Amino acid sequence: MKVHGFLLQRHAGGEERRHEGRIAVDARNTRWCSDGLEIGCDNGERVRVAFALDCCDREAISFVATTSGITGEDVRDLMVAAVEHRFGRVNRLPVKIEWLTDNGSCYLARETRHFARDVGLVPCTTPLESPQSNGMAEAFVRTLKRDYVRVSLVPDAETVLRQLPSWLAHYNEVHPHRALGYRSPREFIARATPEGLSGN
């Protein structure tokens, strides 16, 4: 295909914007990032997943999954689940937390951004054409696909939806991270905080 000129150009959107900032933060509940992924099943069905990660301890705080597209309502449900996981049933976060995402329509929806601010999240988006600006979320997608999806049976959407909670539990409790001293997120949280595995 290359010889006959059938390949797309490497970059068709002008000058690439480099990301030179730091996504990781030093304190928990300072910045959460979110993104989505698609899991293809053997029968042709597709499961779409959106998730939230803490940019300090890398814990997968919450997720939503559907066989249709991820909507703004799904993202708002994701936010509620993340807040409740870390802080319990509260109307508003006790601290402001950045909510870092790409420029997907489900994240940019006006109602979603207003809802984020109402609960105490500060919506932040990556620069256009700079996916590495949400690199922690991108790395999580690669890990989930490589270490869980690829080594599991995925005959249909129902099977994937049934397995997702156990994949994320294993990721949080067992999967080692170089940036966390080769500890899992939960091991890192247990060592880093006096309350161990409690929410905040």
Short descriptors:
globular, alpha/beta, single chain, 200 residues, five-stranded mixed β-sheet, Nucleotidyltransferase, domain 5, 6 helices
* The CATH H-level homologous superfamily: Ribonuclease H-like superfamily/Ribonuclease H
The share of residues in extended strands comes to 15-25%
Here the CATH topology equals: Nucleotidyltransferase, domain 5
- Total DSSP E strands: 5
Low-confidence segments, ≥5 residues, pLDDT <50? 9-20
CATH architectural type:
2-Layer Sandwich
Give the total of domains.
1
Give the CA-based shape: globular
The largest beta-sheet arranges its strands as 3-2-1-4-5
* SSE order: EEEHEHHEHHH
Assigned CATH class: Alpha Beta
Cα distance spanning the termini? 53 Å
* Cα Rg: 18 Å
In short:
This protein is α/β, with parallel strands linked by helices and 200 residues long. 35% of the residues lie in helices and 18% in strands. A hairpin with a 5-residue loop joins strand 2 and strand 3.
Question: What's the helix and strand layout?
Answer:
Blueprint: E1 31-40, E2 46-54, E3 60-66, H1 72-87, E4 97-101, H2 105-108, H3 110-119, E5 121-125, H4 135-149, H5 157-173, H6 185-192
Parallel strand pairs: 1-4, 4-5
Antiparallel strand pairs: 1-2, 2-3
